[in-house]
């Protein structure tokens, strides 16, 4: 809804609904699937739980960096409260970061160690995925353009060596027009 944002506290696994008009934040969900592995003694990325979050329809999709989990939860879009249980779509057993949806509902999940993983719209099976853009070592954030001229452009930041921003024409990778 207008005037609301959803945010996650990565170490503790708490989702907050932020009301920008009232300047308030309300905890709406806390779950073990959303927190880091061992917040007391974690090193590196082990403390980073919920990381990427995106709404698609009434579902909030999320990645958990430390646990390698990609999942979703149905939320009431007017209250931000869960209307269903959290579910794991797939456990990748490796670090995950951000995620995006293209205009057809296909999913793109950043795996910092191997590039970006592609999941076809509506696919809920746990099976090997196509890894795209493996040359983007350190891919950590991605989003599609919002205009007609760049709806097939996936913008990705990466923290590898070298670091920077990639502008990827998804149409040339058969994602935008043929899938």
Question: How would you describe what is shown here?
Answer:
It is a single chain. 0% of the residues lie in helices and 43% in strands. It is mostly beta strands and 179 residues long. The chain has a four-stranded antiparallel sheet with strand order 4-5-6-7, with no helix packed on it. Strands 8-9-10-11 form a four-stranded antiparallel sheet, with no helix packed on it. Strand 5 (59-64) and strand 6 form a beta hairpin. The mean pLDDT is 79.
Essential attributes:
179 residues; mainly beta; 4-stranded antiparallel β-sheet; 14 strands
Strand fraction equals 35-45%
Rg (CA only): 16 Å
Tally of extended strands?
14
Overall pLDDT score: 79
CA(first)-CA(last) distance = 30 Å
Main sheet overview:
4 strands, antiparallel
Return residue spans where pLDDT drops below 50 for at least 5 consecutive residues. Answer: none
Order of helices and strands: EEEEEEEEEEEEEE
Shape: globular
Strand order of the largest sheet: 4-5-6-7
Short description, anyone?
This protein has 179 residues and is mainly beta. It has no helices and 14 strands.
Write the layout of secondary structure elements.
Blueprint lengths: L3 E6 L4 E6 L4 E7 L19 E7 L2 E6 L4 E6 L12 E5 L7 E3 L5 E5 L3 E5 L10 E3 L6 E6 L8 E6 L5 E6 L10
Antiparallel strand pairs: 1-2, 2-3, 4-5, 5-6, 6-7, 8-9, 9-10, 10-11, 12-13, 13-14
């Amino acid at each position: 809804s207008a005037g609301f944002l959803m945010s996650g506290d990565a170490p503790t696994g708490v989702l907050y609904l932020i009301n920008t008009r009232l300047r308030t934040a309300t905890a709406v969900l806390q779950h073990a699937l959303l927190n880091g592995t061992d917040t007391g003694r974690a090193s590196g990325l082990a403390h980073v739980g919920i990381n990427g979050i995106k709404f698609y329809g009434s579902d909030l999709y999320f990645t958990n960096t430390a646990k390698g989990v990609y999942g979703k939860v149905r939320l009431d879009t007017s209250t931000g409260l869960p209307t269903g249980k959290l579910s794991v779509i797939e456990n990748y057993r490796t670090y995950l970061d951000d995620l995006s949806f293209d205009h057809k509902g296909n999913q793109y999940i950043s795996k910092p160690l191997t590039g970006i993983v592609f999941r076809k719209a509506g696919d809920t099976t746990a099976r090997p995925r196509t890894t795209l853009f493996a040359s983007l070592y350190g891919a950590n954030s991605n989003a599609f353009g919002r205009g007609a001229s760049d709806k097939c452009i996936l913008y990705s930041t990466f923290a590898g060596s070298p670091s920077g921003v990639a502008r990827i024409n998804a149409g040339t990778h058969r994602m935008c027009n043929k899938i």
